[in-house]
Amino acid sequence: DLDQRSGWSNDNQLQVNYQRLFHHGFAYQIYYVFSKEMRAAGNNQGSPADSQVSVAPYANYPGAIGTVATMTSPYGTIGPVLSPPRPPANLPVWADYRALNVFEMYRPDDNIPYHHIRFNGIVDLPFGRGKRFFGNVNRFVNELIGGFQLAGDGTILSEAFQAPTGNFGPVAPLTVYKHKHPIVDCRSGVCYKAYMWFNGYLGPEVTTGVAGSVCTTNCVTGLPADYKPVEAPIDNDPTSIYYGDNEVQISAPQLDVTNKGQPLDVTYDAGPEAVAFYRRTWINGPFNWRADASIFKVFPIRERVNLRVNMDAFNVFNVQGYNNPGSDGVEQVQPGVGVANSYNTPREIQLTMRLTF
Fold first, then answer.
1. pTM (2 decimals)?
2. Which of 154, 183, 281, 321 is deepest in the core (most CB within 10 A)?
3. What is the pLDDT of residues 127-158, one digit of tens each?
4. Confidence class of residue 348 from pLDDT cuts 50, 70 and 90?
């Protein structure tokens, strides 16, 4: 193993801010941040568990140091893969060099949203003496209903995620549908409303209404007529013994003894993960938002004694939000309930009283 400092990062960022100072009973602030951070280092997913990463040397890629076997694909078609940069002249195939680091590791940091809007504000509620409602009430009633303020904050963001990279069969152009194509997903035996966010992989045994589909039960319906998965497994024939896998055959002299001269079925290995065709492609996920709010008032008891009463609501509108879809491109929604796995936590309300002296 070789440990060394070879990572770097770049961040292109734009921030726009608009603020209204407190006047006539209210104030607010809105700011937008666009950020695209690129990393070639550890911790690219924002987790300490990823703080140590490895760069595979050029020697780890098939054919880099010659070949000792032949490979065929009797179960399907092998799709395109990306080619790593060759080492500079006279550099050993096991040595580290910057171009290979870029090829394998330089990518967006999906822990940081591309688009992020934040907002906050405060307003005097129009109740009590001198206000729009109940402006002439007596002192006792004014103490009960007057002087309350409403404050809140919220966020709107979109998170990016990596395009699928787990299959090595035919590829198609990436098409992002977002919420344009509602579908019905019955794969589990229970039908759910869903959206096809992008053309992820759905096997022909579950698709219907598109070319080559064979599904009769537990199908996914409503797919675009021109649907083709952005990437498919090599073995994509439901009648194949390796259906849904990436199986190939290899022949080598040493197999004449260990395998009696017969080709050996193995899972296709195109080299390190960086060669996956859509390895460097990132997709914008759904926009999600939430807001928190608080109603509060300070009751003066004595000169240095005050009682503050708060009612705080987190995710006040109980917005569930959408998680990023999986590699199949499906974003599930439960009919009559909302999203199957919500992005936000449910609404929470808390009541507090605080005595200061």
1. 0.80
2. 183
3. 888 888 888 888 888 888 888 999 999 999 98
4. very high
DSSP codes of every residue in 253-287: TTHHHHSTT--EEEE---SSGGGSTTTT-EEEEEE
Pair of tokens at residue 239: 């009648």
CA distances from 83 to 99, 104, 218 (A): 12, 11, 39
Among residues 305, 312, 297, which one has the least CA distance to residue 147? Answer: 297
The one-letter amino acid code at 56 reads A
Looking at per-residue pLDDT, the higher value among 312 and 128 belongs to: 312
- Separation of alpha carbons 245 and 62, rounded Å: 20
How many Å apart are CA 294 and CA 152, to the nearest integer?
A: 6
Alpha-carbon Rg for the chain, nearest whole angstrom, is 29
Contacts of 213 (CB under 8 A, 6+ apart): 204, 207
pLDDT (tens digit, 9 = 90+) per residue, 104-131? 888 888 888 888 999 999 999 998 888 8
The SS3 of residue 102 is: helix
Which residue shows structure tokens 């490979």?
71
DSSP of 303-337 = TTEEEEEEEEEETTT-----PPP-TT-EEEEETTT
Strand partners, 248: 266
Residues paired with 36 in a beta bridge = 12
Answer whether residue 45 shows pLDDT above 50: no
Q: Which residues contact 42 (CB under 8 A, 6 or more apart)?
A: 7, 50, 51, 52, 53
| Distances from the Cα of 157 to the Cα of 12, 34, 44, angstroms | 17, 10, 19
